[in-house]
Structure formats: structure tokens, C-alpha cells
Records
---
Amino acid sequence: MTTRRRFLRDILVAGGALSALGGISGIARLVRAGPMDAPNHHYVFAYFSGGWDVLLGLDPRDPNDFTPEENAIEPGYGLLPAAYQEMVSAGGLSLGPYIGMLAGHTDRLAVIRGMSMETLTHEVGRRRFLTGKPPAGLQARGSSAATWISSRLGQDDAIPHLSVGVETYNVDQPTYASALRVGSSTDLKSLLTAGAPALEPTQDDILQAFLANEATCERSRHSPTLRSAEGARLRLGGMLDADLASLFDIRNLDATLRDRFGIASANETNTPGAQALITFQALTHEVSRCVSLQATSGLDTHFSEWARDHGPRQMAGFDAISRLVTALSETPYAPTGFTADGTSWIDHTTIIGFSEFSRSPVLNVRGGRDHWLGNSCFLLGGNVRPGVIGASSDNGMQPQPVNLETGAVEPGGQIIRPEHVLRTLLVDAGITNDEADLRVDPIRALIPV
Amino acid sequence: MRSSSRIALLALLVVTLGACDDRVPITEVPVQPGDPTPIDLGTGPARPRRRMDIDQLDQSLRSVTGGIGWVDSSGRDLFVTNAETLGVPDWVSFTNEDLEASALFVKFLDDAARSSCTTLITRDAAAPAADRIFFVHAEPSAMMPADQTAIDENLAYLLLRYHGRRVAVGSDEILPWRGLYQDARAATDDPNVAWRTVCVALVDHPDFYTY
């Protein structure tokens, strides 16, 4: 994009001047990196907040075959509204009654079942799925997978890693790979819009030059906090210059585009559909390499609201991802420097949907479901092989060992954990050595790496 | 969008502003395990710095601007309005405040600086000398080189007020700030515009929001 080239040119000029005074390594890296260095892969991390019920979505069971008495599994479909009491069969996959529009993408959909989260704590499960490492207490250890990928592939992007409402971590990667975290499209628009009152352009240049010069001080260069602050200032300047705010102004986007994401009102700026639209814009306008979004929330249904609320909330997330997949499928892949070859954006974008854990396979005495160690996740797009990998057990939906080459349940295989999935994504992104120190093998049945 | 001439100006200014004032040499002292030689770790350039949280920042900005802070046209505190976006814990869904100096933080800090400094400079320039909190040692209309001492005294006062740094008027530490004022003043006919740029720089500078 012209605007990004101009941004890099600005940085080149400033970086050259700064180098004369000691320089900042991040700037040098920004300048060095070119679009041709990066494979044409993009990634979306869709977080379903609160702990999802896999019986309603990714790992259903037939109520006629599974009972709490014999299998410690209680699908509970009879408690749901009449339209959602049956499993869904699509593309050879059995899916839960609230799988929603995602059932229309089984030609690309891979489901991993029978995973182990080894925790019943929201923060621990969430942070393990983000970083691939068990937290220390509640504290995340290591950088998010999205941060790793952004550090390797996103050097040339205006916002390498955009996160809408999802935690991200960067403990050992370059500053530019830290996520730009916002709570909603409104936040993002505010961030990308120059504030008022504005300084005169010349005064602004003088101010920025002064701050850049201050960042060359010994004290600044040896402080991670001050280096991070300078990196943020440079990124902010580039983002404002690139005039990106209009891309994320949902109220003023074309109504047809809003319709594609199921956004009924222009005031819906933070619904699952709005988040999917932000993701679509960030990817296809070459703003971001990785996007983390909160596909849905409010899934922590311990009480009788489970029957009423859990399914629709979960389905809203599936539908938002489904709309994103459709829109990406319908958009030819032709980013700057890439000769169109008939592929679409979904051919170059890998989406992972996950939650911190699943819900207990048996209803509790209050008619809800509590936390459960087992889990599932789904991936689609990019190089993902469609199909099912692994399976939860027929008694209590326990994790089971899986042959990572074939994806079949097999004694002597490995229990799949979040780090297996993230290692697979990192290898897919070109990080073939285990630099993130996840200490597991990739799932070759999922992506041929 | 920056034009080529503005980019050239930017590069030139980086050079003319001169080197920063605190180039503390780092001396490596090789020590073997078990070596009893005492090492003075000091409080030098590697001392970990920490970003203020939003409540601290709000209070600090109000303090240095004489109570102005960052408010909208209705007087609502915009640090409070934007608390969720800025990562202030709501103690329901999250309890940790992210203290990274992120792009989002830097953006809103800059918005706050421009807003509060515009109000402060306008108010202070029109106030009687005894009531001023920004133009304490120099009149807004002070000019270099005739009023250099007064301008330096005012900059030293502002560095103490905004950054808590006691800087001698004749020291090298004042030079970058004097350079900033001179560059800003040379680019405008309005002295208040130049002083506003200095004010915004004082707030945008990491020495204001880290400790």
C-alpha cells in the first residue's frame, strides 16, 4: 500500500538520523524487512470466552446412545428449544445443535477433539491456549503464538498484530510484534484518528523529532519500558499517517459490507459480527498479519441459564467466524507484491477457534454445566486439512492419546494440548525450530508441515 | 500525510537538537562466581522503570496543569470515560492493569497532553504573573537570546514540575529543551504555540509517565 511505503520511508529517514546518534534496533529491523521476506500466511485467533460446551458444538453425542448413568455423558438436548434438539450432520461430520453457519464450511473445517487443558481455571486455560505454556499461578509464561507469528511475518504491516478484546503477551519478541489491543471498533477508530486539538504540522514534526532524539539516550536505550514506549510512539505515528481509521469505522462502512457480517445496526460496534468485520478489514487491507478477536463471550453458564443462553451465545461466535470465512473466500488474494493466482484470502488465512476449557458432560444439580478439563478446538483455512483429529472418550469425555501423524486415537500416542496446536501453527508460519520452547511435536495430520 | 520537505526537516531537527543529556557510560566489571569483590550496582541507566497506572497519570496531569487535566467540553474526566479502553481494572471481568506503554496508551496520553496544554497555555498567558503555574520565570513573549536566562530558568522549573528532575540552569541537561523551544519558536510567530509544543513534549516524554 502506498501509505505503508510512505510510512516506511518516513521511518527510513528518521532511522538514518537516529542511527547517527546511536540508533534503535527496532527501527533498523522495520526498515530492513520487506514484503517479499514474508510468506503469504495470515492468522486469526478467535477466542470463545468463558468455557464452551462442546456437546453443543464441536463434540456432540447422540442422547439415544449416551446417558449420564452409563457413560457419564448427558447431552441435555431435550432441555433446549425445539429447533435445537438435534445434532447436525454436515460434510461427514457430526456437530452439535448450535454449530450454526459453521456447518456450511466443513470442506475446510478441522476439529480437534479429546484435548486436555489440565486446568479448571479460566485464566490458566486461556493463557495456556494463547502461549502454549502452563502459566505460573495465573501469570502467563512466554509470548503468545500470535506474537511469535507477527514477529516473523508482520514486520511490514502497519499493525502486525491486532487484538480486539483478547489478552496477548510479548516477553521475548520485538516490540513491533506486541499486539495493538483495543476493546472495540470504536476504540480502534479513536486510536487511528488524530486527536484534537491538533498541533500545527511543523510543530508536530519538531515535537516528534525531539522525542525521537530523547529516545537515543543511554538511559532510554537500556530500559525495556522506555524502548517499548518509543516503539509505540513510532507505530502510532505510522498508523496515523496511514489514515486507517476509515477502514474500521463501522458506522460509515458500506451497508452491504455490514450486511455480509450480519450487522443489523450501524451502532453494533462490538458484536461478534463487528469483530469479524474488523478482522476482515485488517487482513484484506494488509493492515495486520495476525488478528485476535473475542468471537463471543458469556459462556460461563453454571446455572439453568445454560439451556437458554449458552447455545445462542456460542452460535453467535460460530456464525461470525462463518461469515468471516465466506467473505475471505469471496475475496481474491492479491496483496501488494503478489501476482493474483486465482486463490482467495481464505486460502492464505488460518483461523483457530478456541476456548479455555469445556463444560462438564453431565449437568449439575442447578441445570447448568461446570468446568471440564477436556476440550476441543477448530481450525480452518490456509493449509488446514479438513476432518476430525482425535476423540474424547465415550465415558466422561476424557482426553485420549492421538497419533499426531494420522490424527487417529491410538494407544502410545500423545494427549493433544494447546501447545501441540500452537506448535503446528508456528511451523506452518515458518518457525520450524522450537524457538518458542513448546517442547511438543506439531500435529502433522492437521497441517502438512 | 508528511511531505518530503517535512521529512527532511524532521531528519535535520534530530541532528540539530543535539545529543541527549544523560549519556552515562556503562562499565562492565567481569566477576567470577564466588568473587568477594564488592560491585556497586548503583541506580544507573538500567534501573527498571515502571509506567504509571491511569489513576496516577490522571492525578499527575491534574497536578502539573493546576487542576485542568484531560476533560471534554462538559468537564467530564476523559481518563474516566476511556478507563476501560485504557485497561483500568473493573474488578469484575479483569483485575490486572496492563502497564505497558502501548500505542493505545501513547495515543491517549498525547490527546490528553494537547488538550490540557492548550487550555493551560491560554489560561496562564492571560493570568497575572502571581497566579501563573507555567510562565513562572519567563514571559510568554520572551525571546532568545535576550531572555535566555529567563527561558532557561522557566525550563528548569518546568522539568522539576513535570519530571521531578532538578536541573541547573547552566547545565547541559537544559540544552535539549532549550533547543526544542528555539526550534518551535522559530517555526511560528505566536510564542504561545511554541510554549504549547514544549508543554506537550513535557507530558509525552517518558519521564512524565514513568518512574
Note: The mean pLDDT of chain A is 89.
---
Amino acid sequence: MAERAPAVELKGITKTFPGVVANDDVNLAVQPSEIHAVVGENGAGKSTLMKILYGMLRPDSGTILMDGHEVHFRSPKDAIAAGIGMVHQHFMLATNFTVLENVVLGSEPAHAGALDFGRARARIRELSESHGVPLDPDRLTEDLAVGERQRVEIVKVLFRGARILILDEPTAVLVPQEVVELFGQLRELKEQGVTIIFISHKLDEVLEIADSITVIRDGHTVTTVKPEDVTARQLAELMVGSDLPIPETRESTVTEEVLLSVQGLGVRVGERWALEDATFDIHHGEVVGIAGVEGNGQRELIEALIGLRKPDTGTVVLAGTDMTEWSTRRRRENGLGYIPEDRQGRGLLLPSPLWENTMLGHQTLYPFARGPWINKKGARQQTEHLIHEYGVMTPGPDTSALALSGGNQQKLIVGREMTAAPKVLIAAQPTRGIDVGAQAAVWELIREARALGLALLLISADLEELIGLSDTLYVILRGRLVAEVDPAAVTPEELGSYMTGATKAGAA
Amino acid sequence: MKRWRTRLLWLLVPVSAIVLAVAVSSLVLLSIGESPVDAFRSMFRYGTQANSVASMINRAVPLFVAGLAVAIGFKMNLFNIGVEGQYRIATLLAAAAGAAVTLPAPLHIAFIMLVAMVVGAAWASIAGVLKVKRGVHEVVSTIMLNSIATGLVAYLLANHLRKPAAGSELLIATPQIPPSGQLGPLTQLGGEDLRSFLLLAIVLGVAVYVLIWRTRFGYDLRASGINPDAARVSGVDPNKMIMRTMLLSGAIAGLIGMSDLFGFFHAYTLDVPTGIGFDGIAVALVGLNHPVGIAIAALVFGWVDRAAQILDLQGVPKEVIIITKGVIIFSVVIAYEIVRRLVLSQEVKTAAEETRRLEEEKETVAA
Amino acid sequence: MSWGEVDTGLTPAVGAETGRRLDARRVLLLLGFVIVLLSGVRWITAAPDLTSSGTYGAALRLAVPILLAALGGLYSERTGVANIGLEGMMILGTWFGAWGGWQFGATWGVLLGILGGTAGALVHAVATVSFGVNQIVSGVAINLLAAGVARFLSVVAFTGAGGGATQSPQVTSTLPRITVPVLAGGSFFGWESPDVLGWLERQHWFLVSDVSAMFRGFMVSLSILTVITLLLVPVTYLFLWRTRLGLRMRSAGENPWAAESLGVRVYTMKYIGVLISGALSGLAGAFLVMETAGIYREGQTGGRGFIGLAAMIFGNWRPTGALAASGLFGYTDALNLRSDPAVHALLLLAAIALVGLGAWYLYRRRFIGGSVALALGVLAFVWYALTDSIPRQFVFITPYVATLIVLAVASQRLRMPTYDGITFRKGEQIS
């Protein structure tokens, strides 16, 4: 029985970086016009594999075959020419450019060097209509919403005649409704003969859309299965190799004492209210979760709470004291802890040794400072304590922070905030982009701290995390807290529809 | 990675700079028909004389102070190019103030220094305010302020601060500072005075080191330079930090002219050296923004300047050393980048290996 | 907004609102208003040089090097490389322009000036693009190096040949000049045409004469380099916004990683941008020698490289903006050179403008800005009223003060290329 050659095949791909083997003899075969999912946890090697397929990296050994013929990619240009298009997880868009400029860049239609705008516009309109991806070529990319920007990325690859689409964690920034739209577009593309490689760690979505699933773990291919033959749980175990931890909390530890009281907090940015009339309390021993699509006021809420931005209305009261007028430093010194969502950008001094990072946020207090002087010995001791207590894998307290993996960096940050025994801890996306082991560790730390009485504000896009950890769960939409849901009863789908405003709170 | 291997790599920075500088200068000299060997030999002979050593140190002290001022800014990612203007106007006003009062000796010196620091800080604060309140980038604003300072100094000197001309005296200068405001030489080397401000400069260098690396303020400053967002989140007020850094940088810049003022000129005249501010930037860059490195760089530059004096007598244009200095600057900054990346990637590799080892250990223990 | 800092949204831009962008219509309106104001002040203060054709001609002539520097900076920064070293490249342009002009003639002088500036830019490009050195550090170092090189070369080439360490021998060769016939009295195939605008100017009629003077100033004794420079403005716009190469160059400054992922050679784009900036700065230097001084003199550039940078910023990184800003700076530079009464009259203008600005701010409820502007306006008026003239030294600093004021007022409404000043290393992802 003659079998058609796979559209794309990766055979025996190996790639090492200093200190780590990212891909070890990986095999992947994708049939034409199928949606093939590649799953694995963070750090398993999926991204590296795709970068190799897209020509951004060269494998140490192994071959790439397209339609049965061996190919070599020296750069993305070669891959693009071969019909491969990549839609990156972090959008590669120039916000100051129009949609048209972003789409045509690098493959511009031109007459003797001068851009042919007419041809470009026509082609973009044609592609966006025929593939069900609505777009206006002359809009400024900056003005587009997240889902729309993803469409630009898709049209970008279609514009180059891609027959094979690689989507890297495409639903990471989307809410259930937008995921439905995306899946519709993908099915449409499949009808048109496009082959799709879909990288994700969201197993229920994968089971819904994929025709075929390959599991990668620790740089190896584990197996390839069909979605009808396997459950999410089984897939997860294949991915991790052992039992998956669940972020469920046990008994309630919420007490009567209010540690953080936010009343009518509002932040105006220009003409509009980015945050409006936010009111909630966090009690001693309570985890309050806030669910919402990125860009609905979470950033302004956090900044107002931390003291980076002066609210236009409202008050923030910490353990009975009004801290609305306080500086950031004063808040940090008085028991407000913060785990930033962008750990490298806001939580660490990457080139500095770990002990200087342990001090960050607490540099005015003992044991890190004595009067006006910094106490290097105290800082190093504290760092060593953190390394042991929180399982940070590192040679020592003098290592530079950037030498640590993402998971270990996060453990350090979580550890340093928790050891400071804050009254209230704000955690933004605390387990984003770290491996499952570290994620489980962080969840456990949060549960322990909660049992000891910590009041925690959890802002996350991980719906499972929110549902699993929160005692009280709010939904934020367009700057307002529009709903309070019962984490014990709500499903991710329901939560998602509150988040997009599809369901209004109070609508029975 | 082994400590000494890292140290060795870092040593590459100054070594490669010197090698390249000598090479390029030699090529330039050859191209105009001069012998580099002869030039360097006579420079060396002249430059190692006792009086040359004194001259080298005298030249190095203002450069060192300038380098410190600039480096403080650099550590905070602030480019205070206005050091030149700050020290000129500070020296002028300090000289005028010093001549206008009489105080007992140590107080008089302190007073003059204080005036210089306050004026320098005030001039720098203009750029600071513009940045904090209006978002004007300090590079352009400080450069503009340099030129404005030049004009202001010329105006003030010609019209207000000038000492009364005696007869047909053409000298434009502030009145002489009385002896209580002067500093005699530390000692003499080969007949050349070694100016006493050297001691104060050393104290200043130590103070700056301690401030930047051992105090909370210094931590905040360095953190702001490394990652302003993380610093903000950790409690640093960015506007206050910018202002404080500019004020500090300007205050130290104000002291640049003190060595010459106390030890030689005793007044602000048209002969007071200019351009030290810009050389200070070079010294800070070559010294990699650390007081020890700056001291060494200042001495090197001071030596080169002095030793090159002999070249004129040999018919070799001494301006070739400007090219030498320029090559040193570029080699240092480029070599620094290369070495920094090498060391960092080595560190990442070692850390990853160590981590692997630790994880394996943990697993075998658990088993 | 600052080189080397991407707007992470963490630091709300100091006191900013989402401002309306300065669009063409508002600018023209503003310009018209300014012209009327100038005419008024001229009439009141009887300082004809405030709006004479001589002043405007000088303004144009002095605006050219600033505009060239601004455009040069634009090319570089649009590809994401901050170029503080424009001054140094201009210095190289002046030196090589003078040397070339002295040795081989004016045209060669211009060409060599351009090459000199480009050479300086090459060093900057290698350091920042290939080696990843901090762009501001490299720019500052270029300025130091260029000054030194110029000094050294002067000693070698000029001493004993009619010049010295700080200046060159006279450059006698000149470039062709154009004067528009009929309107400005240029000769037309040997026929001396009437000078219509000149006649209008001499009538000293309010506004009409001033406007005539302005146009005449732009038509008399125009250097060919001036014409080329002015043409570069639309050329730059067309090149950067309407061609394939221009789009790729801009992408290097807006999102180099996106560009790289699409196969654009980002390093090459940056090199092109920086080298063009050097060429234009070199041309500016050559222009300074050929058209204004006829000689190389140390310090000739007088900070115009930095003023050009300010013009680029004030022009919001767009060619037309750079033109307008350079015109403004050229005007203040011209007044500075031409007459003291005019600079004195400028005080009155400043007073009126500041009071007006203050009132406007107060009307929009910006009390701090409003009171500051008002206070400064009153001070300026008092200074004007109590004095007859401004000290020479202050006249000298007018362009620098003007630059500071312009930047202070405008810095916040501006938008620089997203990744301008950020070091891009191939293969390293920022997030």
C-alpha cells in the first residue's frame, strides 16, 4: 500500500546548547493537510525543534525532509521559501507599523525597489477573506487587540505562500471565545490544503483540534497518538512521566481579619478609565484571584497597589493603615510583597550575583542592610537559606541570576518574598513559563503560606491555577470587577465567558 | 569557572587596548615618516624622569576626579556629558568666592570646595530637572549646557568677576585667592611640585567607592542602572534617583578644577585648562567605571600627555597621542563587550553543569 | 522616552497625556502665526534684521548643516542606532572638506568631506552593531576621536603650508550659486533681471514686506548644496516610507527580531543607516567650510551636530519635522551672527510667545506649566525693556538655549522608533 510521503518529517534531530541537551534524537512526521499537535511541558524542547524546522537554528545532527526530499535551511528565508511559516508565541510585530507593513516586510511586492502598495493591499484583502481571517491592511498595529494581532501573524505567513504553518502556543494569550474563532480558522485552512503544526501544553484544546499528537519530554520523542485513543490525563502523564500535580486547595483557612482593603480604586489613563471602582477585601489566610484577559486593567491595579501609579480615586488600606499616599518603598517596608509577572524585567538584576537579587525589594531592611550600609554577609547567608529551603538549583549565592533557569529564578523570587513574611503578597502570573516541577513547588508554597495566614492576591491567566488556588475569585473586564464566581463550582469555560463579557454577571 | 581564568580574561581588556594603541600609533607615525621606535623611546625616557612623574600625577588628579563624576552617572545609566561645563562654572565661581573672603586656612579651603560642589551640582541639576519633568534626554541637554556655561563664564569673567585692571594689564582673571586658600605642594619630585590636592582626591575616590558599593543608596543607584523597572518595583523613586545622581555627579565635577586652583593658579584665569571634562569621560570609559580602574586610566592618560611633550622637540607632532588615546578608548569598550559576553556565557555554562550535577545528586539521594 | 529604554509602560511618561500628534495643518497654522508675530515685532522694534532677506538667507544657509545632521541622525535612528557622534563626523567632514578643497578644488572637497564623515560612521557602526558596544558611549568616543584626528591631521598637513594646528589655508575654490531671476534679481542668460521681492522688502510694509523678504532670502545666492539638501527632505521621505529597502531599514528600528525572523538582514540595515548618517554629517561639514567660512577652523562645527540631533527629535524623527526644526535653529543662529538689535528684539518675541503659551496652558488648566511660562515671559519682557542690547556672550549662546527650550517643551509628545538605542544581537531574543 503506497503511502504518501509526510509533508514534513524531522528525523533524528539532536541539538545541544551549553550545559543542556534540548533535542535528543527527536522524530516527527506530519502528514499533509493534517493538524498535528506537538505537546510537552515548558523546557521539553518543542520550541527548539520548531526553531530548527523554521531555519532559525541549525541541528547538530539529523535531517529534515519535505515531501520526502531532504532540505537544509540556513536561515528563516530558506524555510519561508520552502513554504514553511511560523506564528510565534510572542508576536513578532512592529507596533508602529501598519498591518500591511508588518505583513509584507521581507517579501514586499515592489517595482524597481518602490513598494507596490496596491498589489499588497489587494493580496492581503484576498487572503484575509478567503481564509476567514478579517483584517484591515491600513490600521496601525498598535491599535489592534491581541486576537487581531494574531490574525496579522497568520496572514503574514499565508502571504508568503506558506503551505505548512507552525503555531507556537497560539492560545496562550487567547480566551475561550477567541480560541473557538482560531480553531475555526485553522479548520478552514486545513480545507485549503494547509498543513498545521500546533505546539501547545493545553491538552484539552489539543484533543479538540488535532488530528494527531506527538509527545515530547526532556528532549526525546515519547510517542505519537491519535486524540481518540487517549485521554487528557494519559497525555499529561506521558508529558511529565509521572503523576501530574493538581492545584487544589484543601480546607479553608480564611479568617475574619481583613489585611488588605481596596475601596473604589480607579486609574485614569488619558481619556479613559483603565481601572474603575475596584473594591475588594483580602482576609488573613485568603487567596483572592482575579481572572481576566491581559490588558483589562490588571496592570493598572497592580501598579496602584504597589505604589507605582497614583490612583485617581479610591483608597488602599493595609492591615488597618491607609497606604494610598505611600511610596513604593514604604509599602514594601511595611509588609507588601510582590511577585512580578515579568520576573526578568521587573524582579531580578540579571547580571548581578544572587545575593544582590535576594535583597531586591528589601534592601532597606535587616538582614540586608544595617543603617545606611548594606550587609553583604547577611545577604549571602539569607541567600543560602533560600537556596536550601526553596530548592533553588544553583552553585552558590555568588552566581549571576541570569545563569539560573526560569524555574529556579522564580523559586528564588517566591522564596525571597515569602521569607520577608509579608502581610499581603501580590502574585502576578507566578507560574508562567516554568516547568511543571517548579510550578508544583510554587503552588505548594502558596498553599503553605496561606495556611500560615498570608493574604494573597493572585492575578493570573492560567484558569486552572486560579480556580484551584483561589478562595474568592473575581473577573476583571474593561477595568471593572464585573463578577465574583465560586471557584469550587465554576468551570474554565464559564470563567472564560465571563472574562470576555459573553456572559454578564447576574444573568441567570 | 576558575577564578583566575576569569581574571585573566578581564586582563585582556587593558592589555589589548595598549597593544592596539601602540600598533595604530606606530602605523600613523610611520605613515608620516617618523620612527615609532625613536618616538616611544624618547617618550619613555622623558616620561620616567622624576619631574615627569610629578607632572603625570598632577595631570592625573583632575582627570581622576572627572572620571569619578562621569562614572557615577554611567553607573546609573545617566550620561553626564556636562561635566565640562559644570567644572568650568564651578571653578570660576569658587575662585571668585574664595578671593572674596578670608578664613582660617583649613576652613578657607573647605569653603572654596563647598562653593565648587554646590555650583557644579546646581548646574547639573538643570539637566536633571529637564529630564525628570520634561523627559529631555540628558546627553543633548548637558551638551547644550556646556556651551551655555562657556558663554556664561565668559560673560561673568569679563563683566563682573574680573579683578580690577592695574594700569595696562591685559590679564582677565578673578582676584587672587589669599594664602589661607592656597595649598602648598606635598613635596617636590625632580624639582616639580606635587600638588597636595592628590590626598583629597584619594579620599574622594575611597568615599565614592564606599558610597556606590557599600551603602543602600549605592545599591539603589546600581540597581537603577542595571534594571530601572526592577529598581522601581523594589522601591526606588526614579525621579529622586535621577536628581540625586545628577547632583552628586555635578558636585564631584565641580571639584575637577580644585587641584590646579589650589596648587597653581590661585585664581580663575584664561589659562585654566579646559577640556578636562571630556577627557574625564574617556577616563571613566577606560577605567570601566570603577575608582581603581579610573585611577589607573587617569595615570596612564596623564603619563601619555606628559611624555608626549618631548615629541615636539623631536619634530614629531605630539598630537599623535590624541589618536593613541582614541584607540585606547575604543579598544577598551569593544574588548570589554567581548570579554563580558565570554565570561557571562562561561558562567551560564558552568552554572548549568553544576545544576545538573546537583539535580542528579538529589535524585540519587532520593532513590 | 529615552535611548536604550523600551517603554515597558511601567514609567508613565513624565506628565504625559496621549497627545494629539502635530499634524501638517496645525504646523502650517502655527507657522503663519509666527510670521505675523515676527512682522509685528519687527515693526515695533524697528529691527529690520529680524525679518530681512539677509537674515532669512543666512538662516537658510545655517540651517543646512543642521538639517543635514538631523536627516543623518534620522537615517541612523530609524534603523535603531542612536548616533551621538554626528558632531565628530561633521568635524571630519570639515577637515577633509577643507583639505580636499584646498588641494583639489571645491567638488573634491565636498566628496572627501562626505567620505570623511562616512569613515567616522564606519567606526561607530562596527563598534555598536558588530560588537554591541553601548551606542551612546561609542558616539561620545567618536566625538573625542574625531576632534583628535582633525587636530593631528592639521598639524601634519597644514603647518608650514599656510595654516596651522587649528586652521587650514584658505580654500579659494568655490561651488556654483544660483539666484532666482525676476523675483530676486538673478541674471538670466546675461540679462540682469529686476528684483521684485527686494523692492517689496524695502517698502517696510507690515507683513507684506516681511513675507517678501522671507521668500527673497530663500532665492538669493543659493548654493547648489543647499538645493541638494532641501531635495533630500522629500527624497528621504520617499526612500524610507515608500521603498522596499526603506521599510526594511525602519523595521530594524521598530522590531529587529521580527525583521530577522522574516529574513531581513538587520545588521546590514543598521550599517546602511549609520553610514548614511556619516555621509550626511560629512556633507554638512563640507558645507560649513565651502559655504560659510572658506576655511577649516577648529571648533567650527560649534555643536551643530548636537543641534541637528535636537532638530531630529523635535521633528519627531520625520523628514519634514527635521526641516521645520532646522529652519528654526538656523534662524536663531543667523540672528546671532547678524545683529545685536535683532537678538534684543528676539527677547520681545520670546516674551510675547511665553506669555501667550502661559495663557494657553492656564486655559487648559495646566497651572504649573502656565505659571512658569507666564513668569518667564514677564521676566523676558522686563529684560527687554530695561536693556538696549544683550551682551555678546549671551548672543553666542542663543542657539543652545533655543535648543534646550524646544526640547523641554516638545519632548513628551514625540515618538521615537520603538527599539532606537537598544542593542540588537543576532539570535538573542529580548523576551
Note: Chain C touches chain A through 30 residues (CB under 8 Å).
